[in-house]
Amino acid sequence: MKLFQCGKIGSLKLKNRVIMSPMNVGGNNESDGCLSYRGIDYFVERAKGGVGMVVTGAVRTTRKLERDASTVPLWMLFADHMIHGKWINDLSEKCHDYDTAVCIQLTAGGGRLAGAYAQNHSFAIAPSEVPCFYPPHKNARMMTKEEIKTMVLAFENAARLIKNAGADAIQIHGHQGYLIDQFTTSLWNHRLDEYGGSLENRLRFPKELIEAIKRGAGNDFPVIYRYGLTHYIDGGRTIEEGLEMAKLLESYGVDALDIDSGCYENNYYPHPPTTIPCGSFSYLAEAVKKEVMIPIISSTRIGYPDIAEQIIEARQADFVSLGRPLIADPMWCKKAKDRQLEKIRPCIACHEGCLNRLIHYKRLSCAVNPIAGDEKYLELNKAEIHKNIAIIGGGIAGIVAAITCIERGHSVTLYEQRDELGGNFQLKYIPDFKDDYKRYINYLICRIKRTNVNIILNQKVDADFLRDKFFDKIIVAIGANFRHLEIKGLDTSFLISPFKLYENHLFLERKIIIVGGGLVGVEAAINIARNGGNPIIIEQTSSIASSAYSVNRQHLEVLLKELMIPIYTKAIIQEVCGNTMICKCGEEFVSITFDLVSLCIGMSSNNIGIEHNDNVIVIGDAMVVSNVMNAVWTAYRKCRLI
Asked: Where are the beta strands (DSSP E) in 406-533?
């Protein structure tokens, strides 16, 4: 595979074309701005897996801007003091053991993305006086020339520290609407001095940062610039301007360009959910590659080796940058190189274990890989005492539990009452626009079939069934079922199970009312619309898909709008007359005709009457109705201790 041929960025030779994307590790950073040993273990695990280079999350270079002495760094890394050389050195030496290069990403700060504390204390700065993105939406003040000089000097000092500590490259974070990106974009940069106006002037700040890094680390020290070729918003950067920017950055001496897209206004571009197909953004890198001579890195939503190889093979880019797929499976590179593609644990692009944890200051991890970010403590070891274990339920929680127990060295029998594994995530229930989930279920099924787990299908289990069988532990993973709702006047012949809405049948323009605008109902509506039906969503609250992570919900709203799916929020069902549903929406009454009605109003845990005691463990939705992450984490974390 060309993906695993050597490549060069400036003077730096990489063993392959796979780069680990920059991602903050949250709670794995120390309060002094150093990366914790747990955080170092996380990166080193990806180095063991064969990645060519790891790029850290954003590293700040000064505390003189955007903060005061009382501000705690929380989950930010720093390189503004000699003490920070220790984490950079430790990370570099350990990754070098596996011939993996280390790149430190430097940021100038958040700018208009400052939070409430910075806004309320006048620490929010930007190229110009512009409103901040987050509430309370106060204006960020214009950065002074003296402050620009302070930042430039800080980059020079940080570059010197980084090189002396043993890292191999520096990446400038000029992406996603952060401070550097704001300087380069006329939407946010209204300056009238030499740092505003023309594109060349707007690029003066990053140009000075590039020059500062070269002064601090040397002219031959590789510098990568990461930015969005386009923001996809009115007034933001266009592709045409992004291409001009690439040529200017090359002339300023950067050694490679890492191409992404989007900003916080449409965060589903830089952080795409599963509803955006893999490979969707490689055309952006390809456009830049035609304009410059330096290496190009294609970022975002690559996911799988066949897509990555296609990008390199077609010369759309020289390198690919993978983020969440390497969190989900740190051995991605080794498995891809050995063509063991079915053994790669797919990222499901849910954001629950990564971004959603970061906003609560927890350590970065992964919904499908709970070990991520805590590799030492959560390492799976052989059990000291062999046990005979029964697992009831062949959904995600049950399969993960079975695999975990068998790898601990136990004997495992898994009972599933249906004729196939997957539970509520059977392949027939997963719509085409959630391909990652299909791949993940296939991965789990293939993995459990490679073990010695005794799988018994079409077997309903209850307390009587288990009474004459000896098991040391019984793991209850029986999932949940959809709740029912009594609707006055509704003939049950009109009801259709939510599961049926996912089986991709042609709906032949039938009008189907979805009662419940949660994640299940919204995805069902999208699936119906894409298969010829006319869905209508009725939700009693003011929001839809409220349980989904914000980025995922944002893109679902885009799809709902594109498909022109009617949505009634704050809607209370009054009654049904024949095939007409009458709802009260605020002060108005609305009559909606339909062919079918589906109740997507949430789920309740199943119960099969097994008494809970020290020998019974309940996991997944059977414990508390939640999501894939809850199923995987409860299964793994409980079963690793049996």
From this structure: 411-415, 454-456, 473-476, 480-482, 511-515
CA atoms within 13 A on the CB side of 508: 3
Q: Which of 351, 477, 335 is nearest to 404 (CA)?
A: 477
Give the whole-angstrom CA distance, residue 209 versus residue 251: 14
For 388-482+604-639, CATH gives 3.40.50.720
Per-residue pLDDT, 468: 86
User: Do 223 and 210 form a contact (C-beta atoms < 8 A)?
Assistant: yes
Picking from 4, 42, 6, 7, the residue whose alpha carbon sits closest to that of residue 23 is: 42
Listed in order, the ranges of the chain carrying CATH 3.40.50.720 are 388-482+604-639
Delimit the CATH 3.50.50.60 region(s) of the chain.
492-601
Which 3 state secondary structure label does DSSP give 183? Answer: helix
Mean pLDDT of all residues belonging to the chain: 96
Q: What is the pLDDT of residues 140-151, one digit of tens each?
A: 999 999 999 999
Give CA–CA dist 446/148, Å, rounded. Answer: 55
pLDDT at residue 69 above 80?
no
Q: Catalytic: 178?
A: yes
**Catalytic pick from 42, 178, 437, 549?**
178
How far CA 69 is from CA of 72, 73, 78, 589, in Å, comes to 8, 10, 15, 57
Dihedral sign, Cα of residue 329, residue 334, residue 337, residue 338 = negative
Sheet bearing 567-568, strands edge to edge: 567-568, 534-538, 511-515, 596-599
Q: Closest Cα partner for 321 from 337, 301, 335, 338?
A: 301
- The architecture in CATH of the region 2-358 reads Alpha-Beta Barrel (3.20)
pLDDT digits (tens, 9 = 90+) for 22-35: 999 999 999 899 99
Confidence (pLDDT) at 114: 94
- For domain 492-601, give the CATH number: 3.50.50.60
The structure tokens listed for 206 are 């990053």
pLDDT of residue 578: 96
